[in-house]
Amino acid sequence: MLVSARELGDGLEILFKDDGRGLARDEIRAKAAELGLRGRDEELVFAAGLSTSSETELSGRGVGLDAVRQDLASVGYSIEVVPTKAGAAFRIFVAGAAKTS
Protein backbone atom coordinates (compact mmCIF):
# COMPACT_ATOMS: atom_id res chain seq x y z
CA MET A 1 0.00 0.00 0.00
CA LEU A 2 1.32 3.40 -1.00
CA VAL A 3 -0.02 6.51 0.72
CA SER A 4 1.08 9.93 -0.43
CA ALA A 5 -0.07 13.47 0.16
CA ARG A 6 0.58 16.75 -1.62
CA GLU A 7 -0.75 20.24 -1.81
CA LEU A 8 -2.96 20.72 -4.84
CA GLY A 9 -4.33 24.17 -5.51
CA ASP A 10 -5.86 25.38 -2.26
CA GLY A 11 -6.31 21.87 -0.93
CA LEU A 12 -4.62 18.65 0.00
CA GLU A 13 -4.66 15.48 -2.10
CA ILE A 14 -4.20 12.14 -0.37
CA LEU A 15 -3.60 9.14 -2.63
CA PHE A 16 -4.04 5.53 -1.53
CA LYS A 17 -2.74 2.96 -3.99
CA ASP A 18 -2.12 -0.75 -3.88
CA ASP A 19 -0.53 -3.07 -6.41
CA GLY A 20 -2.95 -5.91 -5.80
CA ARG A 21 -5.62 -7.19 -8.14
CA GLY A 22 -7.37 -3.83 -8.37
CA LEU A 23 -11.07 -3.40 -8.86
CA ALA A 24 -12.97 -6.54 -9.81
CA ARG A 25 -14.54 -4.79 -12.80
CA ASP A 26 -16.41 -7.81 -14.17
CA GLU A 27 -17.88 -8.53 -10.74
CA ILE A 28 -18.77 -4.86 -10.23
CA ARG A 29 -20.56 -4.72 -13.59
CA ALA A 30 -22.43 -7.99 -12.92
CA LYS A 31 -23.58 -6.89 -9.47
CA ALA A 32 -24.56 -3.44 -10.77
CA ALA A 33 -26.63 -5.04 -13.55
CA GLU A 34 -28.29 -7.29 -10.96
CA LEU A 35 -29.23 -4.16 -8.97
CA GLY A 36 -30.33 -2.26 -12.09
CA LEU A 37 -27.49 0.26 -11.82
CA ARG A 38 -25.69 1.87 -14.72
CA GLY A 39 -22.57 3.96 -14.96
CA ARG A 40 -18.83 3.79 -15.19
CA ASP A 41 -17.02 1.30 -12.95
CA GLU A 42 -15.43 4.21 -11.10
CA GLU A 43 -18.90 5.53 -10.20
CA LEU A 44 -20.49 2.17 -9.49
CA VAL A 45 -18.05 1.27 -6.70
CA PHE A 46 -19.67 4.06 -4.65
CA ALA A 47 -23.26 2.89 -5.24
CA ALA A 48 -25.25 2.10 -2.11
CA GLY A 49 -25.73 -1.63 -1.62
CA LEU A 50 -23.13 -2.70 -4.17
CA SER A 51 -20.74 -5.29 -2.82
CA THR A 52 -18.91 -8.00 -4.70
CA SER A 53 -18.19 -9.87 -1.49
CA SER A 54 -20.38 -12.88 -0.80
CA GLU A 55 -19.30 -13.00 2.86
CA THR A 56 -19.57 -9.35 3.86
CA GLU A 57 -19.78 -9.88 7.63
CA LEU A 58 -16.99 -12.45 7.74
CA SER A 59 -14.64 -10.55 5.46
CA GLY A 60 -14.80 -7.35 7.47
CA ARG A 61 -16.27 -5.37 4.59
CA GLY A 62 -19.37 -4.25 6.44
CA VAL A 63 -18.96 -0.64 5.33
CA GLY A 64 -19.24 -0.04 1.62
CA LEU A 65 -17.58 2.75 -0.32
CA ASP A 66 -20.92 4.57 -0.40
CA ALA A 67 -20.68 5.00 3.39
CA VAL A 68 -17.05 6.09 3.11
CA ARG A 69 -17.99 8.70 0.49
CA GLN A 70 -20.87 9.98 2.63
CA ASP A 71 -18.71 10.27 5.74
CA LEU A 72 -15.97 12.10 3.85
CA ALA A 73 -18.51 14.45 2.22
CA SER A 74 -19.97 15.27 5.65
CA VAL A 75 -16.64 16.87 6.61
CA GLY A 76 -16.06 18.52 3.22
CA TYR A 77 -13.80 15.92 1.61
CA SER A 78 -14.27 14.13 -1.69
CA ILE A 79 -13.11 10.71 -2.88
CA GLU A 80 -12.71 9.27 -6.33
CA VAL A 81 -11.19 6.28 -8.08
CA VAL A 82 -7.98 7.05 -9.92
CA PRO A 83 -7.39 5.03 -13.10
CA THR A 84 -4.33 2.75 -12.82
CA LYS A 85 -2.77 0.04 -14.95
CA ALA A 86 -2.52 -2.33 -11.98
CA GLY A 87 -4.03 -2.43 -8.54
CA ALA A 88 -6.48 0.18 -7.31
CA ALA A 89 -6.07 3.81 -6.32
CA PHE A 90 -8.30 6.27 -4.53
CA ARG A 91 -7.83 10.01 -4.24
CA ILE A 92 -9.20 11.99 -1.32
CA PHE A 93 -9.28 15.75 -1.71
CA VAL A 94 -9.49 18.10 1.24
CA ALA A 95 -10.46 21.57 0.01
CA GLY A 96 -8.90 24.56 1.75
CA ALA A 97 -6.33 22.43 3.60
CA ALA A 98 -3.23 23.88 1.95
CA LYS A 99 -0.99 26.12 4.00
CA THR A 100 -1.12 29.82 3.35
CA SER A 101 2.04 31.90 3.49
Helical percentage: 25-40%
Please provide the count of β strands: 4
Which secondary-structure class do the elements indicate? Answer: alpha+beta
Fill in the CATH topology. Answer: Heat Shock Protein 90
CATH architectural designation: 2-Layer Sandwich
> In angstroms, what is the radius of gyration?
15 Å
Q: What fraction of residues sit in β-strands?
A: 25-35%
Helices and strands, in N-to-C order? EEHHHHEE
Shape: globular
Which regions are unreliable across 5 or more consecutive residues at pLDDT < 50? none
Q: So how many helices?
A: 4
Q: What average pLDDT do the residues reach?
A: 84
When the domains are counted, the total is 1
Profile the largest sheet: 4 strands, antiparallel
Description of the structure:
By secondary structure, the protein is α+β, with helices and mostly antiparallel strands. The protein has one domain (2-94): Heat Shock Protein 90. The protein contains four helices and four strands. The chain has helices at 25-35, 41-44, 56-59, 65-74; strands spanning 2-8, 11-18, 77-81, 88-94.
Short structural summary:
The protein is 29% helix and 27% strand.
Topology, element by element:
Elements: E1 2-8, E2 11-18, H1 25-35, H2 41-44, H3 56-59, H4 65-74, E3 77-81, E4 88-94
Antiparallel strand pairs: 1-2, 2-4, 3-4
